[in-house]
Design a protein that fits this description.
Number of helices of chain A: 4
Largest sheet of chain A: none
Radius of gyration of chain B: 19 Å
Helix content of chain A: over 70%
Number of strands of chain B: 0
Radius of gyration of chain A: 16 Å
Number of helices of chain B: 8
Strand content of chain B: under 5%
Number of domains of chain B: 2
Shape of chain A: globular
Structural class of chain B: mainly alpha
Mean pLDDT of chain B: 88
Order of helices and strands of chain B: HHHHHHHH
Number of strands of chain A: 0
Oligomer: heterodimer
Shape of chain B: globular
Largest sheet of chain B: none
Chain lengths: 93, 184
């Protein structure tokens, strides 16, 4: 139960940050592929770097163990990404 | 305090600031419940949950698990952690819109979309529906979406995440060129 409350609160933070970054708008998402507005890339990479740094520091301190890392299967990941990009550029989500 | 209020009521933040907030959320997810922030998996779990009720034989497969089989299925057909997360995302997005007073029920009011595809809302609905199927299908193949694989996998330095990002941008750019043609 406590786990679900954490999920709900983190979800609210997640949605809030998406909204404030403007990623809930079609224009923002599509324009990253047109190189006219790189907000999506800046947003994604900032999140990546912050979380990455924090995770490795926390693991170094022994506070956490890593959850199961997403599996690597080169062809699947790449083809999935290629199809995903089509949907993303079409819908803007 | 007033400064904070003005910041929260702003419609768009610097993507760097919003990115830090998301990064902290991703970090807390691992710290507090050993989970990754994934969005697409929630839809798959819900689809499996509904499908198992309607057509149990059709949905009894490797993906959603076979009755009585050993081991966990790829996608557990139940109300999982990501499903609850997704409910939070909905309300979080709403909260964001409410604080900046931009909350509104919209069907199609994106100026750029109208310029490219025309003003009819049904077109937006059809393309969104088809596009969303493509998104979810691709996320199923790759093992996650932008949040669950690219960001959450990337923060664990998973090679899968970077392969996914490369593929996503390559085809996204090509699709945008095709859709926008000379207006690119």
């Amino acid at each position: 139960m406590a786990n679900y409350i954490i999920a709900l609160i983190l979800g609210i933070g997640f949605g809030f940050s998406l909204n404030k970054a403007g990623l809930t708008k079609y224009t923002k998402v599509v324009n990253v592929f047109r190189f006219t507005d790189l907000a999506v890339l800046k947003f994604m990479m900032t999140a990546l770097v912050v979380a990455m740094t924090g995770l490795y520091v926390f693991r170094g301190l022994g506070w956490i163990t890593f959850p199961s890392v997403p599996a690597t299967y080169i062809v699947g990941n790449l083809i999935g990404g290629l199809i995903f990009g089509v949907g993303m550029a079409l819908t803007g989500y | 305090m007033n400064w904070l209020k003005t910041q929260i009521s702003k419609e768009t933040w610097s993507p760097y600031v919003a990115g830090i907030l998301l990064g902290v959320m991703g970090l807390l997810a691992v710290l507090l419940s050993k989970s990754l922030l994934g969005a697409s998996g929630a839809f798959e779990s819900l689809a499996g949950l509904i499908g198992k009720k309607i057509a149990p034989s059709l949905f009894s497969n490797v993906y959603w698990g076979v009755e009585g089989a050993r081991g966990l299925p790829i996608m557990r057909p139940e109300i999982t952690w990501p499903v609850i997360l997704l409910v939070g995302v909905f309300f979080g997005g709403m909260l964001g819109a409410l604080t900046s007073k931009t909350f509104k029920i919209r069907f199609n009011d994106d100026a750029q979309w109208k310029k490219i595809f025309g003003p009819q809302p049904w077109k937006r609905w059809v393309i969104t529906f088809v596009g969303a199927i493509i998104l979810e299908y691709a996320a199923g193949i790759a093992g996650g979406c932008t949040s669950g694989l690219a960001i959450s996998g990337g923060m664990l330095l998973a090679p899968a995440a970077f392969l996914f990002i490369a593929g996503m941008f390559a085809s996204g750019i090509i699709t945008a060129v095709v859709v926008y043609r000379r207006r690119y």
